[in-house]
Design goal:
The chain is built from two helices and three strands. A hairpin with a 5-residue loop joins strand 2 and strand 3. It is α+β, with helices and mostly antiparallel strands.
Length: 76
């Protein structure tokens, strides 16, 4: 999967999980390989600037603050 496809999958998963299962998640819930973790952390940092997530200080978990569908200006 290319980077844009992976980012879209992240947004879809964040939306689904927040609506159905709560808002606190570990990085390992989304990424299994080191390459995926790198892309995920990069994208989560971007999403934190938009107020969608709050990334923990250690970079191992995050809290979903808002759903991506509330934001029309997201880069994928």
């Amino acid at each position: 999967m290319n980077k844009a496809g992976y980012r879209k999958a992240i947004l879809d998963k964040i939306e689904l999980l927040y609506r159905n299962f709560g808002n606190e998640w570990e990085i390992e819930d989304f990424a299994k390989t080191e390459k995926q973790k790198k892309v995920l952390l990069e994208y989560l940092t971007y999403l934190s600037t938009k107020g969608i997530i709050l990334l923990s200080n250690d970079g191992r978990s995050f809290k979903i603050l808002d759903i991506p569908s509330n934001h029309e200006d997201l880069d994928i």
